[in-house]
Design brief:
- This protein is 75% helix and 0% strand.
- It contains 15 helices and no strands.
- The protein has helices spanning 15-22, 28-39, 47-54, 56-87, 103-111, 113-146, 150-164, 170-201, 224-231, 234-241, 246-276, 291-324, 334-357, 361-396, 402-435.
- It is mostly helical.
- α6 runs antiparallel to α14 (361-396) and α9 packs across α14.
Amino acid sequence: MAASKPDDAPSGLPLTTQSTNQSAPLSTLGSIANITILILGAGSFALPWAFCHSGIVFAFIGVLLLGLFSLCTVLMLVESKRMIEESGTYSEIDEEHNDGLDYSQIAEIALGRRMEYIVKALTLCSCIGACAGYLRFILGVFTDIFGASQHLIILFLSPLLIVLSMIRTWSSLSSFATVGNILFFLAVILVLYDPLHTALSTPHAPHAPFIAANGPGDSPLLIIGPATFLFTVHYCVLSVARESDPVSFKKVVLPVSFGCAAVLNALFGAVCSLAYGLAVKDNVLRNVQGGWLGNGVSMFLAAALLITYLLYIKPAREYLEKLVLYAEPTPMTIRGEILSRLLTAFIVLLTVLISAGVQNFAVLTGTVGCITDAIQAYALPPLIYASLLVKRDRRESGVVKPLTIAKILGSVLLSAIGLGFTAAALRRLMILIFKL
């Protein structure tokens, strides 16, 4: 880290840098696979419940708008990274940045050194919280299907997760991400089969509210929490971008990934909420009948989430490596290699402990989605972008241009709207939980 690196520290980069720079570039399809599987996940199966309590029309539009909102703020981060690299600013900060800027380093350059620590803390909380939530989901699936104790499943999964989490580059993970996307789509197809069958067999079942829900605690704002959890991949995007073609990443990969994920999630939430009606559960898998269908859906989804777990653990591991291993030479010493693997094992075991201690999947994802994810997705990118626009104009002409002022006002307004709606959504969610 720039703040804690001593003057006489060796100038070598962490193993993460070496591995990333030497890895083969990601193809466009590989980049799309990585971003898409990051967006699709267990949160998708909470959407039908949110649709039921928000109103189908409001929720459908809300998912699409939040997907577009998140895409805009991701593009702001990508553009901020480009402005910094073109200005040469980051080369003066620290040699650590030569492996390509990450979210925390961009925040440091734009908003000050303290913001680097804030972003890193938020990213660690988001990544670890998301991974613990996915693991909680997987543990529940395996416990239900195999009837084994949670402790036995943890004993089996932990070594596997530690080994797989040591995969270091996104290009190596792209094949896993492709398999994860296939498994997720199979799970979605199987889940959709059951509600459609249910709707045809029981046509007079109570329907979910089509326009807006009016039950105790219901509100259109309730769609914001789970949708924010789904679309907040900002701390992973820049890492994927380092191994992708910059032009196609900005013009093709991000719009296609966010667009497909937003449409799929909106349709999935609408179809399931229409089919199950007011009987929809907080996790729609609980509505699926048992037997081969229920077990098949659960196994496909568990496998897909296991792959998503590997993608989300990577940014947390990279941040901790830069904190602990900043003075390691390149190539790494045996001591550095051992410390790197111990850090990976520590993060995995931490997610295991959280998932074992917090039994409620909704608590984990809801907290991450409405607090740490919302700050990273809605508040910081517009502020970073606005700050860098001002610095660029002052550096080039000494004055801030009128067009830049308009962009700054739009960015600040975007940030305020995002945080305002998220705060209101968190309040409504707490009201509904206490009423239920």
